[in-house]
Design brief:
Structural class: mainly alpha
Strand order of the largest sheet: 1-2
Number of helices: 27
Radius of gyration: 35 Å
Shape: elongated
Length: 742
């Protein structure tokens, strides 16, 4: 392994000098070829030499002539390898030098041997004393030194990886690969001047030994190095995958999974690192969908994607086999940086495989397996490859939105209500009166729709999934996806009882559209009003795109989200924040009509949320006290992240969220929410529900106080009364939708 000192002091120009010498060798062989062709090879072709001896001589002369030609090819390839090595080493040395300079700039010293230490010579006397006596300071220095040392060591390691790659290439370039050329160990007429292609050939050879169960520990280590050294290299990646083919790629990934998860767990991290390298190779090779390689590999994968493979240890069920696309997506989940078109094409191809399977009369999923694949120990396997690739796609906002935009395709409809999501066998049906096992009864797996939920979140917010999103600008395609989702869930009667694992993603999404849902529930802006039960729309103004959906559709969706009390608490807290922003944005000289309208809007919107909360009391599925506690937790945690919620652009700035008064009443409100949850669910009690009304009262009083009015002043009371009336209106309208028989 080259040392730090050797890397920085070695004269790399000798590589280009050697390259020039090998170019000269190639020219010398070319001259010899011309001479041999003229003075020797032509003798057996002339009229003066006839018969068997002439024919035999001509055959031998042909071999020799071709050797001169192949010698030129080999010499030129060697010259090219020297130049390739020079380019790589110069680049890697510059990166090492840059890392050293960065370390010095950060207060480190770096010795000639690459050892990092803290440069105390730059410290003042006071800093030296602090370093000598402050353990925290010493620990900080120790961590910093270790971090810079690791950075420099990695740069040295990268050079070592490249050096071994050069060695691989030079060992292979002179090997005569044509056993039928009439020579034994002659010149290599197929020599190539690209180091990465030789490394790819070695990777392919090792992969075949892995699949055959004949790979050694050294093979795995070398395969790990090959993927690490060539991460992001297009020539290497295409050559490896072209050599393995789609089927060979899947077989290699399956073998690594078996080793990592079952056969050799103690070395599992090494196998998973190799698999990550293979996934990176896949991402690199498929970056450009216009290349012949991409088109051929995709076509090859379409065939292998539905073929069946055995993954040792994956299932306790005898002879259980998985499909190629399940293995592909399992592999892809180990990597990142995939091209959006490749993700879209893969998702489309998987869907096509599903539809083709169903078109043959099969009622179960093509991905159906007799086991469950969710949770910590089993969730790594992508038994639902479409959901898996959608989860990968969710890291690419632009591709996510384009994939689900209902104005351009029907993917959203397919995922919401057109697809069979049952992928695991729940049990086997027994015929009436019989004892034999009947047809398998399929069910949804535990992690069903997790990829789709993440994709939906990204597609509608433009942000990474997994958290609550700031209220802000949206594009029209983003808004259109959400509007279509809400309407479709209602049409399919799934809004109030949402499909498994979509509740939390939808809650995340809805916080981002709080300004729109506020207007829909307020029922005071004609742009947000449509008749009950009718499809909505997406439209734009100066503040970006918005959704308009029927209020009953929105209410039912809110009720579906309320099955998760913490998620619903976040929505409620987001509305409180937005309502507070709306009131804070009122100008100091606002007139009575303007104040009345704003308070009415906020109170109606909050009343709508409380109508949903009231419906929970009548639902015997819930432990009311626990639901209220989780709901309160959701409110409190949303208020603690108040900076997420900002007013729309046409409202004036409201200042620092830390100065808001919203959380002043939170504690008391939480106690009332819990107390009301324990009331007996009767018609009388639902009419007397008061906690939400008190939330509105306190919001108005605190806003009035911020404007210089006492909380019990006559001025404040008139607006409290306005808020109470409109809160009741909003709450009753929500209950009309959810509980028409109350």
């Amino acid at each position: 392994m080259p040392t730090y000192h050797e890397i920085l002091t070695t004269d790399l120009t000798t590589l280009t000098t050697a390259a020039q010498h090998w170019d000269d060798v190639a020219e010398g062989f070319q001259t010899q070829e011309k001479t041999y062709r003229r003075d020797v090879h032509g003798i057996s072709l002339g009229p003066t030499w006839q018969g068997l001896s002439a024919g035999a001589a001509n055959a031998r002369f042909d071999v020799t002539l071709k050797e001169f030609q192949k010698a030129q090819t080999e010499a030129k390839a060697i010259a090219s390898l020297f130049r390739d090595a020079h380019t790589q080493f110069v680049d890697l040395r510059k990166k090492l030098e840059s890392a050293r300079d960065d370390a010095v700039a950060a207060g480190m010293k770096v010795s000639d041997q690459g050892l990092v230490s803290y440069d105390t010579g730059k410290l003042s006397q006071g800093d030296r004393q602090a370093l000598a006596h402050d353990p925290d300071y010493q620990e900080s220095v120790r961590k910093s030194v270790a971090s810079w040392q690791a950075h420099l060591d990695q740069c040295v390691k990268n050079v070592d990886d490249a050096d071994k790659g050069v060695e691989v290439a030079f060992q292979a370039v002179a090997v005569d690969s044509d056993t039928g050329d009439g020579t034994f160990n002659g010149f290599n007429g197929k020599a190539q001047g690209d180091i990465e292609k030789y490394e790819a050939a070695e990777a392919e050879d090792i992969a075949k030994r892995v699949d055959a169960g004949k790979a050694s520990a050294a093979d795995y280590k070398e395969l790990q190095r090959l993927f690490r050294d060539n991460s992001g290299d297009k020539a290497f990646s295409e050559t490896v995958l072209d050599g393995l083919g789609a089927k060979g790629t899947l077989q290699l990934s399956n073998s690594l999974d078996s080793l990592a998860h079952y056969e050799d767990k103690k070395n599992g991290s090494q196998y998973l690192d190799i698999q990550k390298g293979l996934a990176t190779t896949l991402a690199t090779a498929t970056k450009d969908p216009s290349t012949p390689f991409y088109k051929e590999f995709r076509e090859d994968m379409r065939k292998a994607g539905t073929e069946q493979f055995k993954v040792d240890g994956l299932s306790p069920i005898p002879d259980e086999k998985v499909r190629g696309y399940q293995s592909l997506v399992t592999l892809m989940q180990q990597g990142n940086g995939y091209d959006g078109q490749f993700l879209t094409d893969t998702a489309n191809d998987i869907r096509h495989a599903e539809e083709a399977y169903a078109a043959k009369g099969n009622t179960e999923s093509v991905w159906g397996l007799r086991d469950k694949f969710s949770g910590k120990d089993r969730g790594w396997f992508a038994n639902d490859p479409l959901d898996g690739v959608l989860g990968i796609m969710s890291h690419d906002p632009k591709t996510s939105t384009a994939y689900l935009d209902p104005s351009h395709n029907d993917n959203l409809d397919y995922l919401l209500h057109g697809r069979n999501w049952d992928t695991v066998v729940d049990h086997f049906a027994t015929p009436p009166g019989g004892t034999t096992t009947g047809l398998p009864v399929m069910a949804e797996d535990g992690d069903v729709r997790q990829g789709f939920g993440a994709l939906l979140e990204t597609a509608t917010t433009g942000e990474a999934p997994g958290s609550y999103h700031p209220a802000g600008h949206h594009t029209e395609p983003q808004a259109r996806i959400l509007q279509h989702t809400i309407d479709t869930l209602n049409t399919a009667n799934q809004a109030q009882e949402l499909p498994k694992n979509l509740t939390v993603p939808l809650a995340h999404i809805m916080t981002s559209y709080t300004a729109d849902t506020h207007e829909i529930n307020a029922q005071s802006d004609s742009r947000f009003e449509i008749s009950p039960g009718t499809p909505g729309s997406a439209w734009s103004d100066a503040n970006g795109a918005h959704i308009t959906v029927a209020r009953d559709h929105l209410t039912k969706l809110m009720r579906g989200i309320a099955d998760d009390p913490t998620a619903f608490g976040h929505l409620y807290g987001a509305e409180q924040e937005h309502a507070h922003d709306v009131l804070e944005a009122l100008p100091q000289d606002a007139g009575k009509t303007q104040i009345s309208n704003r308070i009415s809007d906020c109170s109606r919107a909050m009343g709508a949320y409380d109508g949903v909360r009231a419906d929970i009391i009548f639902d015997e599925r819930f432990n009311k006290t626990q639901w209220a506690a989780d709901f309160n937790h959701g409110i409190s945690s949303s208020l603690s992240t108040a900076l997420m919620f900002n007013p729309v652009a046409d409202l004036s700035p409201v200042g620092d969220a830390a100065n808001r008064a919203v959380d002043v009443w939170t504690y008391e409100s939480n106690k009332e929410h819990t107390a009301e949850a324990n009331l007996k669910a009767t018609d009388d009690n639902v009419k007397l529900y008061a906690a939400g009304q008190h939330d509105v009262e306190k919001m108005v009083r605190m806003w009035g106080h911020s404007r210089g009015h006492e909380i019990d002043s006559e001025w404040t009371k008139q607006w409290v009364h306005t808020g109470q009336g409109d809160y009741d209106y909003g709450r009753d309208r929500a209950l009309d939708v959810l509980r028409a028989d109350r």
